Amino acid sequence: MSAIHSIESSIHVDHRDITHPQLYCKVSDGEHLCRAGADTVDLWIADLDSSIDQACISEAEYEASRRFHFPKDQQRSRNTRALTRLILSKYLNRSPEVLEFKRNDCGKPYLEGQDNRLRFNLSHGGGKLCIAVAWDCDLGVDLEVRRPIDDASDLVDRFFHPNEATRFRRLPKHLQLESFLRTWTAKEALLKATGIGLNADLSFSELTTYPLSPLRLLNVDPEWGHPQNWTLICPQVAPDLFLSLAVPRPVEGLKIFKVDGI
Ligand SMILES: CC(C)(COP(=O)(O)OP(=O)(O)OC[C@H]1O[C@@H](n2cnc3c(N)ncnc32)[C@H](O)[C@@H]1OP(=O)(O)O)[C@@H](O)C(=O)NCCC(=O)NCCS
User: Fold this and answer.
1) On the chain, which terminus has fewer CB atoms closer than 10 Å, C or N?
2) Residue 65: which domain range?
3) Average pLDDT of the chain, as a whole number
């Protein structure tokens, strides 16, 4: 099976429930799929348990997948590497196996050398993968599958801005899980866009309190610019999937592609 064909033939663009519809561009029939423009971002959503051609992954990537105990997790790890290569190679018009990846000091992967203008970030969880792709601009993406979180209050105290934590505690209990998962993915996406990961402190970002208001960035560490220059999008691509995309600049178009449908 050719994975590329599998991707192309199964692309399905979801027009529903885009949180910021004005940011969403319809992909018209016949449009070249990977012509992401200067101010647009593409989001690819994939099921990691589907059958993907893994021939393009490197030996090191194959070896790394073996650190997982369960075969299912090994398979997901290899599918993550294969899909990343297959998708990015479509933008670069290069063979997926020749792409070279590096990681920054905090673990964020990027493309080496001549391909470096193409930026991406990925998130995986619950058997799903999301890859965000843009030219010339770093970006961050995070996904979480809806599940009970027993220690949400502790995590809020540890990782949220003090103002966010105060407002979170005032929320009715039945709204707290939804609020937590949406806010968490948004804050992770913001951190992942900067690439600093765990090194950020609590005041790095302050968001509005979802669902009392739409999720918006109120404050961000001045080192990362003015909050209004950031784009934060939380599209509802599947009922129990919380997904956030953060880009440190205005974004004019967002396209969402589903690989093998979810
Ligand atoms: C590294 C980190 C970003 C990974 O996030 P996660 O939710 O555990 O896992 P995800 O699936 O979303 O993302 C993992 C992917 O992010 C990418 N990544 C790793 N380090 C990264 C970094 N510093 N910046 C951006 N992306 C990173 C990698 O591609 C990784 O997948 P891979 O190792 O298979 O290539 C996370 O551990 C982290 O540092 N989070 C910040 C913690 C925190 O303060 N959270 C508070 C939010 S309120």
Assistant:
1) N
2) 3-142+248-259
3) 84
Judgement on whether residues 192 and 104 belong to the same structural domain of the protein: no
Q: Whose CA is nearest to atom 28 of ligand 1?
A: 108
Taking the complete model, does pTM exceed 0.85, yes or no? yes
Residue 27 and residue 56 share a domain:
yes
- Give the tens place of pLDDT for each residue, 34-70: 555 557 888 889 999 988 999 999 999 999 999 999 9
* Helix 71-92 with 3-10: angle, nearest 10 deg: 80
Q: What's the angle, vertex CA 10, arms to CA 7 and CA 11, rounded to 5?
A: 85
| 217 CA from centroid of ligand 1 (Å) | 20
**Element at 125 (helix H, strand E):** strand 118-125
CB of 78 shorter than 6 A to ligand 1: no
pLDDT at 31 > cutoff 70: no
Ligand 1 site, residue 142, Cβ cutoff 6 A: yes
Residue 183's CATH number: 3.90.470.20
- 100 plus 169 within the same structural domain: no
Mean pLDDT in residue range 77-86: 96
Asked whether residue 59 falls in the same domain as residue 117, the answer is: yes
pLDDT at 260: 58
Give the residue, by CA position, lying nearest to ligand 1 atom 3.
197
